[in-house]
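job 3f2a | input accepted
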Amino acid sequence: MEYDLLSEQVFEDMYHEYFPKIYNYIFYRILSREDTEDIVSDIFLKVAKNARSFDPDRANFATWIYNIAKNTLTDHYRQKKVMCVSYEDADVASIADVEAQLKQINSDRRKVIFKELSLLKEKERLVIYYKYFEGYSNRQIADLLDMNESTVGTVLSRSLKKLRTDNMLELNS
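job 3f2a | predicted structure (173 res):
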């Protein structure tokens, strides 16, 4: 679906469709609710300010808005003076206070999942997010993350193996 973002109704429809996707995209990278809410607000402000620059001939809307999200997250890292590391070297502990976030989660199942996700590298979390939360194919994930499609499959397989702990298996029973 393409958007004429200058129309108030169309912008509202786009917001309702993309807010949960963008929120989850940011949250699963930084694992902090407060920072996620701030960043997502900034993203949608930028979308509104730059609505005239969206060109459907250059990229589809999803690519455009995710690029804004990625750039806004990079700005956030710079402002917080957090070193933006490569996917391979990402260390969640340096980005978010996992223990503080765990205290805010009510469900035991969600606590275990959150804890396990926090142990994964950023690239691994992103691949899992796109695959299981957004339903993207390995090819789509590869395009979004600028990776080889077979690498996506390898990262996904290894990440799932890491997540298959006794705690996770107990929750699935």
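job 3f2a | The chain has a mean pLDDT of 76.
job 3f2a | closed
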